[in-house]
Design brief:
61% helix; 19 helices; single chain; 386 residues
Length: 386
């Protein structure tokens, strides 16, 4: 297999433009907005959404939120924001190769993690655990929807960002399916149908991005050892050995960088080819057919999926539950859980704008909303000053 994602002749064979979201004019239902707006003179609806996301305060705050490593390790490690940008480059590449709507895909990639609380997945688990004590749940996808529909305040004419239906649907459904009977509040998002391919790609682009990035950051942190990664992650061993063979005198850090790039390219190229293959074999030739297909069509091949799982299982065993990362998780549980309980019992300590919402939404939900919007540093500052 070559290192290129696909050659030009290969791309001509995989194009799925007939299945793409069009989004070119106001007649496309996926460009509809909750508050009608006039058509822009030179930007499509999804281009406008992309701008609204990147200018949002919640987007900027991702720079201060943990991906895996908090900034006490190094300023070089990925934040939630830099991870999001890496996902975006992969997702847009895949969409372009398949002839899909790149503007929609890029917007969905940029917004896909906007609902994450501080301290990464550990913070999300801690917040969900705290909410369960009140018969509620915290879901970062659904919180992202609350952010773009309510919390972002940039326009005099309406609350939220007034994003298109296509982007809001993708926020909800890019990584999982929700059942209509469990979530009647999501009725407008076609829960009985699959999401468009542009949305289906996001979760897999996310996986590709964090697998390669977490190996990189784990080695940089000294938690992972190069020989151990090579012994237990087949796709990394293959790409690293190829780098050694082709560049025997290169510095080790350059061999690592090249191996991770090739690993990323292998997975991305496979995602392009396998998604095209499955779509053709299912005789899916329209967006409607994508939506009505009984399962999602975006996928890795059987062999690459096995390698993805192997890499993910290795990272879980050696990195995500390592002693160093476990200390971060314990801190998240202490800080998030402690502040949540304090503010639920004393909501008057919340900022006035949030306290005003308690009578309508209830203290647990309002407190969760407040905590979820915090950066790591800001929540730690609140913890120290409590």
């Amino acid at each position: 297999m070559t290192d290129q994602i696909a050659t030009i002749p290969e791309l001509s064979k995989v194009a799925l433009s007939a299945c793409a979201v069009r989004g070119l004019d106001s007649t496309d239902p996926l460009t509809a907005r909750a508050y009608p707006e006039s058509v822009h003179a030179y930007r499509t609806a999804f281009e406008r959404d992309r701008g609204r996301v990147t200018h949002a305060r919640s987007f900027r705050r991702m720079a201060g939120k943990t991906q895996v490593f908090s900034n006490r390790y190094s300023d070089h490690f990925r934040s939630r924001l830099t991870h999001t940008l890496e996902v975006t480059t992969i997702a847009r590449t895949v969409a372009g190769a398949l002839g899909l709507n790149q503007d929609l895909t890029e917007t969905l990639a940029l917004v896909h993690d906007i609902g994450h609380p501080p301290f990464g997945h550990a913070g999300e688990r801690a917040l969900d655990t705290a909410m369960r004590e009140h018969g509620l749940r915290f879901d970062h996808n659904l919180h992202a929807l609350r952010i773009v529909e309510h919390f972002e305040q940039r326009y005099a004419a309406h609350p939220g960002l007034n994003l298109t239906l296509g982007v809001r649907e993708g926020i909800v459904k890019h990584s999982r399916d929700y059942q209509a009977e469990d979530h009647p509040e999501l009725a407008e998002y076609f829960l009985q149908l699959r999401p468009p391919l542009e949305a289906q790609l996001i979760d897999l682009a996310d996986e590709i991005a964090y697998l390669t990035a977490d190996i990189d950051d784990g080695l940089e942190a000294g938690i992972l050892e190069l020989r151990d990664v090579r012994d237990h992650v087949a796709i990394f061993e293959r790409t690293y050995a190829r780098m050694e063979q082709q560049h025997p005198k290169a510095a080790s850090k350059l061999l690592l960088a090249g191996a991770l790039t090739r690993m990323l390219n292998e997975l991305t190229g496979d995602l392009i080819r396998e998604t095209a293959k499955r779509t053709r074999e299912a005789n899916v030739t329209s967006l409607r057919a994508v939506r009505e297909h009984p399962e999602r069509l975006a996928s890795l091949s059987h062999d690459k999926e096995a390698e993805r799982k192997q890499a993910k299982n290795y990272l879980h065993a050696r990195l995500y539950i390592s002693e160093e990362i476990r200390r971060n998780h314990q801190q998240a549980e202490e800080v998030v859980g402690g502040l949540f309980r304090d503010w639920v019992h004393h909501p008057e300590r919340l900022p006035n704008a949030y306290f005003a919402l308690v009578a309508h939404d209830g203290a647990p939900r309002v407190v969760a909303d407040y905590i979820a919007g915090m950066t790591d540093n800001f929540i730690l500052e609140n913890w120290r000053e409590r």
